[in-house]
Task: structure prediction
Amino acid sequence: MDIVRKDATRRRWIRRILFLAAFLITVPAITIAVWRMEPAAPVVEASTVWPDTVKRGPMVRLVRGLGTLVSEDILWIPAVSDGRVERILLKPGAPVQSNTVLMILTNPQLDLDALDAEYQVKGAEAEYADLKVKLESERLNQQAELARMQSEYQQAKLQSDRDAELLKLGLTADLTHKLSRAKAVELENRLRVEDERLKIKGQSIDAQLAVQKAKIEKLKALHLLKKSQQDQMQVRAGSVGVLQEVPVQVGQRVPAGTVLAKLVQPQRLKAELKIAETQVKEVMIGQRAEVDTRNGVIQGVVSRIDPAPREGTVTVDVRLIGELPQGARPDLNVDGTVELEKLDDVVQIQRPTFGQPNSIVQMFKYDRDGRTAQRVQVKFGRHSVNTIEVVEGLQVGDKVILSDMSAWDSVNKIRLN
Result:
């Protein structure tokens, strides 16, 4: 026979209340805990990232620029006068001597002008000879007149002297002596005037001949100029070198001053590097540089910095030192670096793809187990081509990921598989 307990129902209700209370407390707690839990760290293939270890040591600061080799001595050959390209005898790349004919131009009008200038010289020389004969004839006439005047003066003087002696002896009248004496004085004065006229005539002759000579010299100079222009229709190199460019074509009409050819000295080359405007501010003349021609590396020194940037870059000239590598030639594409400074003791890593000097970035640093990485904040300082200084955020020996991890910007931790 069952005995009914009086407290059984009460205990049953107490258990139910306790169970319900535990349920009401546990479920929200679990829910909150789950809600607060971080998502599982995503898995990244270790073979796809680029790691590096922070180290301390010397760092050479470099800036890089692409460019070309150009000749230090460039000779532009212009057209001296108008003409038409008749023939082009050599093509770019051909070695030339100073007397090598590159092309032939024609200009019929120039030929006609040269011939006309030649005949003008001959005509002026004939005029000079004719004028010289005429002036010499006038000089002789003047000399003959002077000789006649001298003769008359001598006769008048003798007569005056004779009348003076006769007057002393009383054999002639005083009037006769005075008349002969006056005639002698007159002829003496006329003789003096004729002598001056002869001297002036000589000076006049010399001046007229000098004018005609100057005219001849002027015409000769014009003829030589036309002849020189005519000779320069055969365009010559004018120097030893290599023909690099011929920007004209056969049959083309070229006015005076048109560039017909470009001549370079392949033994004397320099590098023209295009360096980013933001990096060139520390480049100075005299700094050491290296130029990679893909066939060898040659040392150099910065010799010029273009003051005007173009398209975000500045042209820096590097004078090459030593023997050129095989295959070095004008217009060859090269890769150059300029040494800014040497730092003895610097905490550094390889320069990441997103690393900029004097900036603060987010990077993933490996944990001790090497299988996970945490996001850390890193401050960079000075930089070089391949390395960058670490100012804050990392210690020597830390291993970091240098690859672009922008795909994982939403997480602070990753697992490496």
